[in-house]
Design goal:
Elements lengths: L1 E5 L6 H10 L3 E6 L15 E5 L17 E4 L11 H16 L6 E7 L8 H13 L5 E7 L2 E2 L4 H12 L2 E5 L5 E2 L2 E2 H11 L8 E5 L5 E2 H11 L5 E5 L4 H11 L4 H11 L10 H5 L6 H13 L22 H4 L7 E8 L3 H9 L11 H13 L20 E2 L2 E7 L4 E6 L5 E10 L2 E10 L1 H27 L17
Parallel strand pairs: 1-2, 1-4, 2-3, 4-5, 5-6, 6-11, 7-10, 8-13
Antiparallel strand pairs: 9-12, 14-19, 15-16, 16-17, 17-18, 18-19
Helix pairs in contact: 2-3, 4-6, 6-10, 7-8
């Protein structure tokens, strides 16, 4: 079958595509920014990447008409727009209007469980999208999930931050809210088993794990898996705003995402039973099993996707990375460092491992202080780290930077700053003529931007110099001499 996947660079989309490819399907990935499409897709014969934006109907013309099944995985946890619900509605309407002109027989939508009378605005929006996706020309299959648990999922990473950092918690009362967590592997199983399966046409199913747990119980079970003793006391005094700040300062989430999560976590998410497990032969695992499986993926460095790589995790960047690829030259300040390279391959490997747990090679304490200050002033700080310790792709989060361009064969890495700044900043590493050129570019915004640059200039002089020295240094004990560069005897 030919399958259209929207939201192809999202948390679920990036995990679903390999499963569909393994089943022998031809995949059409729709992305808003081609730079964010996983470059490994270029090596596949039966996958095509189409750049389109469902908020702009005129961009959809390149999507092929010969489609059998389409996955609608477009949604956001952002609070950045006042008309959030209307934007999601427009996306759904534009999607429906276009796919109705194709040969598509089935659309599969991943929604949220919405059985309560009072819903958060995001669950309300999910329910509204369901209505707008219904059609007389194709069959609609809806899967409604609650908390999704897996390596890199927002719920997993936030719970991990809380459990591993706080032995004693005074927490908001919404920790007593009940939910039915579902492992990401089971979400994916429901999704790919449903493709072309007529038994689920024009039907909606709640999908959930085998247990009903409160968020407090999830925290405590997570602690058990990690062999940690934790004490949690809930208090009724925390307002939603205070709860959002609590999540923001303790975990790696952004404040906007924290606000969205608090809004949703106050709503009980309990699914309605159906025959879907038997129908698709899916037996959901327990929450503890899901957590254990997630840590196995982490230990194997095989996290496929992470919520931290979503643009929502910062709020500074929108979806179009192309806008930031061309580093400006006029009206900017630059710090340019150049060093001769002894071992280009080793230098490239060091660059590709920069940030996260590996750090920035020099002045680590100053990088951490900058991260704390950024968090204090409403930024993201260094807590996002990186998804993979050795691999980088365009769109990945890297501490308080975003990867704009990453190409090992061209020996170039470009980062864009998502920290709080009175301006914009880029950090570029490239190898040319056996030299590493490291360029920090800052485009100031007004007088405060210029004052900021001059205030940090003394720190740049040794931080950037020290960093490039470490990048070109050969780590082996022997000098990098070979018979090719020895003098003739």
């Amino acid at each position: 079958m030919t399958i259209l996947v929207t939201g192809a660079t999202g948390y679920i989309g990036k995990r679903l595509i390999p499963l569909l490819l393994n089943q022998g399907h031809t995949i059409v990935c729709v992305v808003r920014d081609r730079l964010r499409a996983d470059k490994s897709y270029a090596d596949e014969d039966n996958i095509y990447v189409i750049e389109a934006d469902f908020l702009k109907p005129e961009t959809l013309v390149n999507i092929p008409k010969k489609i059998d099944v389409a996955y609608y995985l477009i949604h956001s946890m952002s609070n950045s727009s006042k008309d959030f619900e209307s934007l999601e509605e427009r996306c759904a309407i534009n999607f429906k209007n276009y796919v109705e002109t194709t040969d598509v027989e089935q659309v599969i939508y991943l929604s949220g469980i919405t059985n309560e009378d009072v819903l958060s605005k995001h669950l309300r929006s999910r329910k509204n999208v369901e209505e707008h996706l219904k059609s007389d020309t194709y069959a609609l299959t809806i899967f409604k999930a609650g908390i999704i648990v897996g390596s890199g999922s927002s719920s997993f990473e936030i719970i991990r931050d809380l459990v591993e950092k706080l032995p004693f918690m005074i927490a908001p009362k919404w920790l007593n809210t009940k939910t039915q967590p579902l492992a990401v592997r089971d979400v994916l199983a429901f999704l790919y088993h449903a493709a072309g399966n007529e038994s689920v046409y024009n039907k909606s199913f709640d999908v959930f794990g085998p247990e009903i747990l409160t968020y407090k119980e999830m925290l405590l079970q997570f602690a058990e898996v990690r062999s940690l003793k934790r004490y949690i006391f809930t208090v009724p005094l925390m307002t939603p705003k205070l709860s959002s700040y609590w999540l923001y300062f303790v975990t790696s989430t952004s404040y906007k995402l924290a606000t969205s999560l608090v809004d949703s976590m106050g709503i009980q998410i309990i699914g309605k039973s159906s025959n879907i497990n038997k129908l698709l032969k899916v037996n959901p695992i327990t929450y503890k099993e899901a957590v254990q499986l997630a840590f196995e993926k982490i230990e194997q460095n095989s996290i496929v996707s992470s919520w931290k790589d979503s643009m929502v995790s910062s709020g500074r960047l929108k979806n179009n990375l192309h806008k930031y690829v061309n580093v400006p030259k006029f009206g900017c300040f630059e710090d340019v460092q150049e060093r001769n390279i002894i071992d280009a391959d080793q230098t490239i490997e060091k660059i590709w491992r920069i940030g996260g747990k590996n750090g920035w090679y020099y002045g680590t304490i100053l990088w951490r202080i900058r991260g704390y200050l950024d968090k204090l002033f409403g930024g993201i700080g260094l807590r996002r780290g990186r998804t993979n310790p050795t691999a980088l792709d365009a769109g990945d989060a890297l501490d308080f930077w975003r990867v704009i361009y990453a190409n090992k064969s061209q020996q170039k890495l470009l980062l864009y700053a998502e920290m709080r700044l009175p301006g914009e900043a880029w950090l570029e590493f490239k190898i040319r003529d056996n030299k590493l050129i490291q360029t920090a570019t800052f485009r100031p915004r007004g007088l405060w931007g210029r004052l900021y640059w001059y205030s940090v200039l003394p720190f740049h002089s040794f931080i950037f110099s020290g960093m490039i020295n470490k990048l070109v240094k050969v780590e082996s004990q022997k000098a990098a001499l070979t018979t090719e560069n020895l003098p003739n005897l």
